[in-house]
Specification:
Keywords: Signal. This is ABC transporter substrate-binding protein. Belongs to the bacterial solute-binding protein SsuA/TauA family. With about 350 residues, this protein is α/β, with parallel strands linked by helices. Helix content is about 40%, strand content about 15%. The protein has helices spanning about 10-15, 55-65, 65-70, 85-90, 100-110, 130-135, 140-145, 155-170, 185-190, 200-205, 230-235, 245-250, 250-270, 275-280, 295-305, 315-325; strands at about 45-50, 75-80, 95-100, 115-125, 125-130, 150, 175-180, 195, 210-215, 235-245. Strands 7-6-8-5-9 form a five-stranded mixed sheet, sandwiched between helices. Helix 1 (about 10-15) packs parallel to helix 5, helix 2 packs across helix 13 (about 250-270) and helix 14 (about 275-280) crosses helix 15. It is globular, with a radius of gyration of 19 Å.
């Protein structure tokens, strides 16, 4: 089951062309002092820090709480806007590690470029937000009724997951029109029927009266009620930390320390006792959403942290292979995991 190819986005174009950009390190969004790592004799690792969503939370919190330094590496956060720039910066050597998914980096792996997945960051967190009346529909009915969906980017993961869901539920994957709408403005204005977004984007829209119609993180029906291929997408490792294979091979101690630092940070973040502190720390950063008042922001943070998980189990490789083939990201599948899964990557 292969979906027709989607329009190329800047992200995919940058990957396929393997464009090497000269990314300039900057201070971490949110006022971090990360650009000046302490002179403690530990190796320094340059980690991307995206400017929106929750993808940069673990790097920021782990650095601020001292988990990375405790485990043996200084993390220097480098602000970049998106995955295309991060992938190019990895190729150019101005960045050591970036969190990307296999929609981003799969085409580069297929073309023979050498990257290593060091440790996972979070699982599949996509959700569909709709009007209240549509949110009560079973998923197959919802997918057959919506005509327009807002997505962060055309051809990105949000588009592909919605298309794949529609096809797995017997619908026409091309019957839905996709509109670039990274902040949900089109849904608020009534221009779209639904929005594919992450947990933070969902919080914003739900605060404006819309409802979650489907979420991979918060299922409305028993997992067993969904088609087998949809079940495989639930809990699927999504965004992972990647480096060039050369950097990983040249810096084994930094890799091991970073893997442990991510595990320790995620364990701390997922402890319910730390929810208020996390929300408070993030409230003073670029990732804080001003449209969410204090209690709503705290609730959003506490509901979002459930997505973090450092493991990339073997079964995920098969699921990603099925997905990238079906969606046209890598029609012939990915290279063997032994070529891109780093030594020590948590799997169980």
């Amino acid at each position: 089951m292969k979906l027709p190819p989607l329009p190329r986005t800047r992200r995919l174009t940058a990957l396929l062309a393997a464009t090497v950009l000269a990314a300039t390190p900057a201070a971490c969004g949110g006022g971090s002092d990360a650009a000046a790592p302490p002179a403690n004799g530990l190796p320094t690792l340059k980690l991307v820090s995206y400017t929106s969503g929750a993808a940069a939370w673990i790097g920021y919190l782990g650095q601020k709480k001292g988990f990375f330094a405790k485990d043996g590496v200084n993390v220097q956060l480098v602000t970049l806007p998106a995955g295309a720039q991060a992938t190019s910066a990895l190729l150019g050597g101005s960045l050591d590690v970036a969190n990307l998914d296999l929609n981003n980096i799969g085409p580069a792996l297929v073309q023979g470029q050498k990257f290593k997945l060091l440790v996972n960051e979070y699982v599949n967190n996509w959700q569909i937000i709709s009007k209240s009346a549509d949110a009560t529909k079973p998923l197959d009915s919802l997918l057959s009724s919506i005509k327009t969906v807002g997505v962060p980017s055309l051809g990105g993961a949000g588009t592909r997951f919605v298309q794949y869901l529609a096809q797995l539920h017997g619908g026409n994957a091309q019957a839905i029109k996709y509109v670039v709408d990274p902040n949900g403005a089109s849904q608020v204005s009534g221009s779209t029927d639904a929005t594919a977004t992450d947990p933070v984007g969902g919080c914003v829209l739900e605060n404006q009266g819309f409802k979650s119609a489907f979420s991979f993180l918060d299922l409305k029906a028993p997992k067993e009620s969904y088609p087998a291929q949809v079940q495989a997408l639930i809990g699927l490792p999504a965004l992972s930390y990647w480096s060039s294979a050369k950097w990983a091979d040249d810096n084994p101690k930094a890799v091991t320390a970073f893997q442990q630092g991510v595990k320790d940070t995620i364990a701390w973040v997922k402890d319910p006792a730390n929810g208020d502190e996390i929300a408070s720390m993030l409230a003073n950063t670029v990732w804080h959403v001003s449209s969410l008042p204090g209690p709503a922001w705290t609730a959003c943070v506490k509901s979002t942290v459930k997505q973090f998980d450092p493991e990339f189990p073997p079964a995920a490789v098969d699921t990603w292979n099925t997905f990238v083939k079906a969606t046209g990201v890598a029609p012939n599948g990915l290279p063997p995991a032994s070529q891109w899964l780093a030594t020590g990557a948590p799997q169980q």
